[in-house]
Write a structure and sequence with these properties.
Layout: E1 6-7, H1 8-15, H2 19-27, E2 34-36, E3 39-42, H3 44-59, H4 63-74, H5 79-123
Antiparallel strand pairs: 1-3, 2-3
Helix pairs in contact: 3-4, 4-5
Length: 126
């Protein structure tokens, strides 16, 4: 029985993305479909790599981090090494997001203060 394959349209539909998005990941070397004439044919490896890339994107990881993590899974390293690296990436990303949240909270507090000042001035007829 031959290994399962997918067309670009099938993968796009399955993951709720456009074929253009899949072609972008192909350009980035994340997926590398076979060609059958002019058609792209994706193997299970491509499907898995695409799924991992989309997960990384949802987490807000940079493309270089996504590619590095995906390539690590294809490499000769142990699962422990891969998991440690993934954990380190997640911890760095969490710290960055927490800092962004603190920055946003400070900005929102400043906006609230400015709004309060404006309302007070308007109430005084100024």
């Amino acid at each position: 029985m031959p290994a399962p394959t997918w067309t670009i349209s099938e993968l796009a539909q399955e993951f709720g993305i456009t074929p253009r998005t899949i072609r972008f990941y192909e350009d980035q070397g994340i997926v590398s479909p076979m060609r059958c004439g002019r058609r792209r044919v994706y193997a299970a490896r491509d499907r898995t790599r695409l799924k991992l890339a989309l997960r990384g994107k949802r987490l807000g990881l940079q493309l270089s981090e996504i590619r590095s993590l995906i390539d690590m899974y294809d490499g000769p390293g142990t699962t422990q090494t891969q998991l440690r690296e993934y954990l380190a990436v997640l911890q760095r990303h969490r710290a960055q997001l927490e800092q962004q949240r603190r920055d946003i909270d400070e900005t929102l507090a400043e906006i609230a203060e400015q709004e309060k000042t404006c309302r007070e001035l308007l109430a005084q007829g100024g």
